[in-house]
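Problem 12. The chain below contains 476 residues. Write out its predicted structure in token notation.
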Amino acid sequence: MFQNNPNAYPIASLTPNLSKAALELADIVACTDIIAGTSILNAANVAICGKASWKHPATGKFHPSTLYSMIFAVSGDRKTTADNLACSPIYEEETQNILKHAESIKAFKSAHTTWSSIHAGLKNRIKKLTREGKDTTDAEAEAEAHAALEPNEPRLRRLIRQDITKRAIYEALEGDGATAAFMVDEGQILLEGDIMRHLGVLNKIWDGAAILTYDRAKHDTIIVRNPRACISIMVQPTVFNKFLQRHGAITHGSGHFARYLFARSPSIQGYRHTNAINTGLIDLVPFHHRITALLQLDAGEVAPMQHALLEFDEQAKIEWFQIAYKVEADLKPGSFLSDIGDFASKYMDIVGRIATTMHVFDDVPGKISVDTLLRAEAIACWHLNEYKAIFSTEMQRSEESIDAEAVYGYLYSRYYRRNMNSVSKNYVRQRCGVRGERYYRALDELIMMRAIEIQRSQNNTQIIVFNPQFFYENPI
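Solution.
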């Protein structure tokens, strides 16, 4: 209940190397399988960002392999810890790039000072020859040749971006095939930042638009070609709900959220087990080594390496069309996907992106196999069910259900966690945040769910009595 997904994350559907890394991450961090699985998939996707595209079996066009994802988890559920461990080689590479850039800037400034001195001397020579009425042809040719040798200021190779403006997005992706990863473990940074006011740009980046332009003053234009960018947002449910209240109509209506892999992670606080002896990393070691190898393939280059153009093998193509047929059939009025057609229209694209990510990360030669395709489809299907649970009109909760969640959360955090199993009904009414008739309807909802019952004390005061089995099975 209440944001808990009863279905385990399909970690086994990840390729074996990724699956082992996810299981070890969940064990070491003591986080949910949802946080561990999505963290590993996102880290792998960032590592291959811009390095591969896949060929659509129906259209023959090549599509990006980058993913957008959003994971919900309450504060204290170690989503940041899991992300930091899964992505540690990415953050380390980012740090090294910043340090290398600082050294490059020092060398650039020294070289530019020398160049400027020579350039100034050549200009003075031309002025002197002009005053003396002498021929300046040779001097001008020398000055022109020297001007062509002006050192270029080195560009910082940054992959990870957080709070970023529209202009900064274009600058980060300027050029052909440039990459970026918008990654935050506090989703409020992105959701309330400038980036979410430019959903059309983010949609085009996800699509891998052939060209994007940003016109600045004095006819200065930033040109972006074939951009590749990942988005990974970890956010608390309350923050996301507030964002939906303000911007949900535009964000959802634009089809932006249909591009995301959504995931709700239930809280397991109070039920986590930490191993007494930490034997160190085992399966995460080769995972980290592979990320480092992928990141360093184009180290030192301003432009990314030429990325691979992948396609599915013949058996995978047959399976692809069978899956696509089922998706289309489920779009009929009254069918499972009829009220989330926006996500369904992106579904096969998402399957292709996940399959490409796993194929490239595992360094498999040749075409993408049917086994990888089916693994990717199992993962995409899990996220499809999450999208439906969040955005489907038929699955949206009633006012009573929402109020019952608020009251239950208050009872759980304020009393059950303190080993209390009953509390005054009026005392809760005054403090739980749900007022008037809505409070009593929320209690009725909890009673029907057998979470609580109402009893009378010796002085005839009404008491809310907890069902310990229900509270144990439904942690907040």
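Discussion. Residues 96-147 form one domain. Students who got a different answer should revisit the alignment rule from Section 12.3.
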